Amino acid sequence: xxxxxxxxxxxxxxxxxxxxxxxxxxxxxxxxxxxxxxxxxxxxxxxxxxxxxxxxxxxxxxxxxxxxxxxxxxxxxxxxxxxxxxxxxxxxxxxxxxxxxxxxxxxxxxxxxxxxxxxxxxxxxxxxxxxxxxxxxxxxxxxxxxxxxxxxxxxxxxxxxxxxxxxxxxxxxxxxxxxxxxxxxxxxxxxxxxxxxxxxxxxxxxxxxxxxxxxxxxxxxxxxxxxxxxxxxxxxxxxxxxxxxxxxxxxxxxxxxxxxxxxxxxxxxxxxxxxxxxxxxxxxxxxxxxxxxxxxxxxxxxxxxxxxxxxxxxxxxxxxxxxxxxxxxxxxxxxxxxxxxxxxxxxxxxxxxxxxxxxxxxxxxxxxxxxxxxxxxxxxxxxxxxxxxxxxxxxxxxxxxxxxxxxxxxxxx
Length: 413
Ligand SMILES: Cc1ncc(COP(=O)(O)O)c(C=O)c1O
Fold this sequence. Notes:
Layout: H1 4-7, H2 13-26, E1 32-33, H3 45-55, H4 70-84, E2 94-97, H5 99-111, E3 117-122, H6 126-134, E4 138-143, H7 166-180, E5 187-190, H8 203-216, E6 219-223, E7 249-254, H9 255-258, E8 267-271, H10 273-286, H11 292-304, H12 308-329, E9 342-346, H13 355-367, E10 369-370, E11 372-373, E12 384-388, H14 393-412
Parallel strand pairs: 1-10, 3-4, 3-5, 5-6, 6-7
Antiparallel strand pairs: 2-8, 7-8, 9-12, 11-12
Helix pairs in contact: 2-13, 3-11, 4-11, 5-6, 5-10, 12-14, 13-14
Pyridoxal-5'-phosphate is lined by residues 37, 99-101, 125, 191, 195, 223, 225, 254, 256, 262, 267.
């Protein structure tokens, strides 16, 4: 059968690692799973309690509001004011989405169509590439934090604290891409702290991009999935902290990582009124909104568990330290990222030629550790594997010991 939108999709490389992991587990092997970014930390108790209570009320069993119930949108407005000093009108500047992924996907239907172009970082969280493609648009990949094509090993391993500044090079690459694309791109997708490269930016960087967008009438879409996942005192900026950003920008804010509520599927698109209005309208045709008890519980999470993201973050920071320090001691030096729940690890030189997929497969079979091969995030990601910090420190230490043994074996063999 012909499925025109689907047939052109490349095989999902993460699925290959996942099936190796499942095979190994079925054979009784205790694989340390640092592959998929699926948080293992429980959601806040207040949200769970509220959910249990709300689900018993038959009034909550009906269709809910597609754009989100008013109290939920008000809770987001309050959170943005508290956290970022950004004022949002809950009626016109916030729409609830079924996770950031759904929000991004349908947002691209609103913004783009055949003949339009989006600039997207490479490597990227896959939906940043596929959402514009599903909308029928062209995607121009803009290199972020990986060596330049042509061979020379630029010092662009995206490690905060290192000498290179991946975000600076990315900005230059964006400008170059802008110059060379015609017709001019309608959308620029960004996401900082960045999955998978862990690159981070400051408010001055965001301000430069907003000024550029204002001058050139391009829409900025900022996926802010790791708004709270930042370490060593670094505070990721919301793009809406830039004065005037609402003229050109929207931002996706999700409870998935901050509140460890991945399965609940609650996120928001906030910012430019016209774009919020357009997505709200599209969604009113497509869905009836998230189950109301979930919306009620999510409201309570934001209003009453405001400190929870900090607790979650401390856990990720300890795991980050365990992994980076452990791998460095094992002879695979890795600098610590400033943000995200990932570690983006350049494949050590002797194994680079294997490519990231083969190397990740090797890690499953010989080290009993699952990672995500960098190539799954686009061609710009080969040469790296991504570790997700979704197992506890003890398990991470076990994984590091196994990796050390496997790498030694590879060297000897
Ligand atoms: C950059 C980025 N955006 C969005 C998501 C998914 O967010 P949600 O669960 O809200 O769809 C993830 C999850 O890993 C992510 O890394």
